[in-house]
Design goal:
The structure holds two protein chains of two kinds. Chain A is built from 15 helices and no strands. Chain B folds into two domains: about 190 residues, D-Maltodextrin-Binding Protein, domain 2 (3-Layer(aba) Sandwich); about 220 residues, Periplasmic binding protein-like II (D-Maltodextrin-Binding Protein, domain 2, 3-Layer(aba) Sandwich), CATH 3.40.190.10. In chain B, the strands form five sheets. Chain B has a five-stranded mixed beta sheet. In chain B, strands 8-11-7-12 form a four-stranded mixed beta sheet. In chain B, strand 13 and strand 14 form a beta hairpin. Chain B starts with a helix and ends with a strand. The chains are: A mainly alpha, B alpha/beta.
């Protein structure tokens, strides 16, 4: 009986304690996350502008921003560009390349791992804008790449204007691959050696070893990494803005760039917020897809 | 005991939540320096040369001689491309914490910023300023700073005209007349074609700003110079509607398309970035790498000893031809005039002190110093007569072009329409057909101004 009376309040206390600990972070989430999202949601139904009369008196314009969004050919172009950028730099680039580097470094000497690891990490530790400027001067008209190829007698190419999408994809791969590499290194180290050895004893080839043992074992890491890299890439702004500004024309205008242009170059804040919600929805849909495929 | 613990936890939680808010409090007392002086901040656009800039030097010079020593004048430039400056200004003017005491406003956006409530009407203050009421300011220039509500929101300090700058040396080499005066667009294109054939390979035949990054320069110096030259306009004053489809728009875009198709224009890598304006006027033109440049009358300001790209020979090498109308129709040539003004933001902290400084900074002597140093045209009648001003090369001819000058629509939606013009021009430059670019322009402008305010021709 006595043990029961002591036990009850402690159980009751436990139910509330978690709430107290969470309150500060809930407050932060409310102020800096939920409130701006609700505000964005609200503004996306208005004609809010940066200057002019509608900057003073905003009007509720219903679904006009969204209707326009579906008629606007640049939105389609931007979604398409975002997907190419995402697929090229995140899925193919960072994910596959990061995995390959990690795989090739597996079981190699410490020295080798350290040197290669540091080189790859250099891109990751460089701040985004510095990285953009480095690659801008690499691909620029009188940049490093053109100097190198002109040494072999090949005339220079205006990389940022002839193949702009490729340059920003390569830039993002250079910047972000180290993250995937680190994630996969950790995962590969956890693949039990005995299983691999047993497979080799049974006569499994290297390819079979990779596809039947390693990949199934680290499947969850692949999905998690895919989700993280996708969400990171979806929001890339500074890199593209500094390198191509979304141009020439709209050839590298991804959704974040398009949103910025509408809100802060064309002064259409209301329309810009509507586009940001579209970006949010795309992010949520992709995340749900990945989370689903993990189960 | 358990309850006490709970309360303790609650207390800690509240304390932590409250402590979060401390980060949000704003610092007070900003804008006044420690010495007890009032600080008057002036915001303007720095195009990347910082303390070498004309406005910076001028502000420093004027504030050094400013008699009221109880205020300190502090330049607070915004370093941005022409396209970004106005958005940054709008954001700064929105809040009391970031608004400067004086801001330089391009007259095209003044009306819009005034309707947004960002600027302080100056009528009351202007009444008591003799210079304003005694005819020292050219009357026509006051229109540029008067918003649609009839109130004045700034004191103008310069204006400009636009035309075709050309390099006489390159013209001579290519066998073109040194005293060039094209009669229609075809003659401009023919000259460019001749230069492409006969001049060195690295000479750009004709430069026009064509990108979004060059902002208003693309709208005004390129597109509107072409559009108004076809006889068409952006806005119909009698019906108060924006023209979203016309032969004139197509003709203007086709001119741009021709320049790019025949590779008569600048390479995209040079013209589509925010530095493009500087590239043409400060690099290519002085180096003899550019034959014709459709640009503003102020570019000579760069070539003075005090300018960003000193070039003493410019007086003899450069020519300034009027931009012809499309087929040579009346009035034969066309120019657009703009200009800048000093305004006081509604959110400024020291409005009276700012006004006193503006009166001093824009008196005859100081205005003259600024327009001469920057290569602009003056808005003050007394400066226009001064020999120190009239002896400047090209000033007379640039002022002469002003007689036929057209102005941008004094509409509060103009800045938003203008950015759509820039997108349209860049899209044609990068390969979109004029018809498709026009279609998108019509759609975007309709959304911005509303279907009731557009007309097709």
């Amino acid at each position: 009986m006595s043990s029961l009376t002591v036990h009850l309040p402690s159980k009751k206390r436990k139910t509330y304690t978690w709430l107290y600990f969470l309150l500060p972070s809930i407050a932060i989430m409310l102020v800096f996350f939920i409130y701006p999202i609700l505000l964005t949601f609200f503004y996306s139904f208005t004609n809010l502008a940066l200057t002019g009369e509608s900057a003073k008196e905003l009007k509720f314009i219903g679904l006009d921003n969204y209707i326009h969004m579906f008629q606007d050919p640049t939105v389609k172009v931007s979604i398409w560009n975002t997907l190419i950028f995402l697929f090229g730099s995140a899925v193919i680039g960072q994910q596959v390349l990061g995995f390959l580097i990690a795989l090739l470094m597996k079981h190699k000497s410490k020295m080798f791992r350290r040197v290669i690891g540091t080189i790859v990490l250099a891109g990751w530790v460089t701040p985004e804008i510095v990285c953009a400027l480095c690659l801008y001067s690499f691909f620029g008209d009188e940049g490093t790449l053109n100097s190198i190829i002109s040494f072999f007698g090949i005339p220079g190419i205006t990389w940022l204007y002839t193949v702009p999408m490729l340059t920003i994809i390569l830039a993002n791969i250079w910047h972000g691959t180290a993250f995937s590499m680190l994630v996969f290194q950790a995962a590969l180290d956890d693949v039990p050696r005995e299983i691999e050895e047993a497979a080799v004893m049974d006569g499994a080839s290297k390819w079979q070893n990779l596809t039947r043992i390693i990949i199934p074992v680290i499947k969850d890491t692949i999905t998690t990494n895919m989700m993280l890299v996708t969400l990171q890439t979806l929001g890339v702004f500074g890199l593209i803005y500094a390198m191509t500004g979304g141009g020439p024309g709209t050839s590298t205008t991804t959704l974040p760039i398009f949103m910025y242009n509408q809100a802060f170059v064309n002064y259409q804040l209301g329309y810009g917020t509507a586009i940001s919600l579209l970006l949010l929805i795309i992010g949520v849909v992709l995340s749900l897809f990945y989370i689903r495929s993990m189960k | 005991m358990a309850i006490n613990k709970n309360r303790f936890m609650l207390l800690i939680t509240i304390l932590m939540c409250v402590s979060l808010l401390f980060g949000c409090s704003s610092s007070t007392g900003k804008g006044d320096s420690k010495s007890g002086k009032k600080t008057i901040t002036i915001t303007y656009r720095d195009d990347g040369i910082g303390e070498e800039g004309t406005l910076y030097k001028w502000i420093k010079e004027v504030s050094a001689s400013y008699p009221d020593k109880t205020v300190e004048i502090k330049p607070t430039p915004i370093q941005a491309s022409e396209g970004d400056y106005f958005a940054k200004i709008a954001l700064a003017l929105k809040s009391k914490d970031t608004a400067p005491d004086i801001v330089t406003e391009d007259t095209f956006i003044l009306n819009s910023d005034a309707s947004a409530g960002y600027l302080e009407p100056l009528d009351g203050k202007l009444k008591g300023w003799e210079d304003w009421t005694n005819g020292s300011f050219i009357e026509a220039m006051k229109k540029g700073v008067t918003a649609s509500d009839g109130k004045v929101y700034g004191v103008p300090y310069n204006t400009d005209s636009r035309g075709l700058w050309y390099n006489k040396d390159i013209f001579k080499q290519a066998g073109l007349p040194e005293d060039w005066k094209p009669k229609n667009w075809d003659e401009v294109l023919d000259a460019a074609r001749t230069i492409k054939q006969k001049a060195a390979n690295d000479v750009v035949p004709i430069w026009m700003n064509l990108g979004k990054a060059t902002g208003e320069a693309t709208s005004m110096q390129t597109y509107e110079m072409l559009l108004y030259g076809t006889g068409e306009r952006l806005y119909q004053d009698d019906s108060s509607k924006w023209i979203i489809k016309s032969q004139g728009i197509l003709d203007a875009l086709t001119f741009i398309e021709t320049i790019n198709k025949e590779k008569l224009g600048p390479p995209l890598s040079k013209v589509l970035n925010g530095q493009a304006g500087n590239t043409s006027s400060r690099e290519l033109l002085p180096k003899g790498k550019l034959a014709i440049s459709l640009d503003g009358s102020w570019i000579t300001g760069n070539y003075f000893d005090t300018g960003a790209a000193p070039w003493p020979e410019y007086k003899d090498v450069l020519g300034f031809a009027p931009m012809p109308t499309s087929k040579g129709q009346e009035p034969g040539s066309i120019t657009l005039a703009g200009g800048w003004a000093l305004s006081i933001p509604s959110n400024a902290k020291h409005k009276d002190e700012a006004w006193e400084f503006i009166k001093y900074a824009l008196n005859k002597e100081n205005t003259q110093k600024l327009v001469i140093a920057s290569g602009n045209i003056t808005v003050r009648a007394d400066v226009a007569k001064d020999p120190g001003y009239t002896k400047m090369p090209f000033n007379e001819i640039a002022t002469e072009y002003l007689q036929n000058a057209e102005f941008r629509p004094a509409q509060d939606k103009y800045p938003e329409v203008s950015t759509q013009i820039q997108s349209m021009v860049e899209s044609v430059t990068t390969g979109t057909s004029p018809a498709d670019a026009l279609k998108k322009y019509a759609q975007d402008v309709t959304r911005i101004v509303g279907a009731d305010h557009v007309v097709e021709k």
